[in-house]
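FAQ: What does a ligand-bound record look like?

Like this one, built around flavin-adenine dinucleotide:
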Amino acid sequence: MIPAQLDYVRPASLDEALRILVDREGEAKLLSGGYSLIPLIKLRLAQPALLVDLQSVPGLDAIAETDDALVIGARATHRDIHESAVIRDRYPGIVDVAGGIGDPQVRNWGTIGGSVAHADPASDWPAFLLAANATIVCRGQGGEREVPARHFFVDTFTTAIEPTEVLTGIRIPRRAAGVGGAYQKLERKVGDFATAGVAAIVRIDAGGTIVGSGIGVTGVSASPYAAVDAESALAGKRPGDDAFRAAGQAAAAMSQPVSDVRGPVDYKRAMVAELTVRALRRATERALAFNG
Ligand SMILES: Cc1cc2nc3c(=O)[nH]c(=O)nc-3n(C[C@H](O)[C@H](O)[C@H](O)COP(=O)(O)OP(=O)(O)OC[C@H]3O[C@@H](n4cnc5c(N)ncnc54)[C@H](O)[C@@H]3O)c2cc1C
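The answer part, i.e. the structure of the complex:
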């Protein structure tokens, strides 16, 4: 289909982008990689009067570690993230996520900020950001605010970001000794969205006890969720399949999948349980091997 008539601007600064969003509130839509928005516009499921392209706004694609966080700019593409030296060196769970999104073309253009703002219920980044207790950085004309991922994903395609704000980046707690993460995704075929996806982060102390964990689940509910019951089930346990299976059951019990071409409800629940076990196994191996 051919898109409806629209205007297009490419602001050269964040301030200019924010000004346009305020002046044209209700009419303007931000454009990042375009891999979710352009198909919607072509199908006329979205009909913004104005596209505000962020590609000339400087400073939005940096990836850097600070004293307490890994900070990923909103316009970092999935490929930038997958190939980042600091991420490949220290955050293998993030490599799992970035490398499994779509196909090379999607990874070349799609951005983490676009994915997070779009909030597709089957997208991969939210699961990891929930597990990692990340925060989403949003900037409006009044300044910056940080929204915990656990409060950001409100519903299907709905987030806590305001229409006059730009998502500028993601802050993931800096990895410490004894911490490991992993992401496991089931897809119908390579390049597909997740039938189910589970991200796990574990923190294991010197005595070999799980002292902290995060489990994020995607694809099996109206919005990705933190499996808090699974996290509680892991607290104070020794890592191993008994603890992991209990966590998997708890994560699956919180899911609300629908039956569709990707499988019936019971199958999807069983997959959440199994993916949780696999993600926890891998996260644990990585936690035990990481000394900071
Ligand atoms: C064939 C195909 C396969 C895919 N497979 C997967 C997959 O396996 N897993 C997965 O997770 N995703 C998948 N995707 C989605 C892909 O990751 C998209 O790139 C991503 O969801 C959107 O990022 P974008 O940069 O393209 O955003 P856009 O399409 O440019 O924008 C998406 C939405 O976010 C808003 N937005 C963008 N940037 C900002 C910002 N900085 N601040 C506020 N709002 C903003 C836009 O206004 C729009 O509403 C796939 C897409 C395609 C086409």
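Follow-up question: can I read anything off the structure? Yes, for example: The mean pLDDT is 97.
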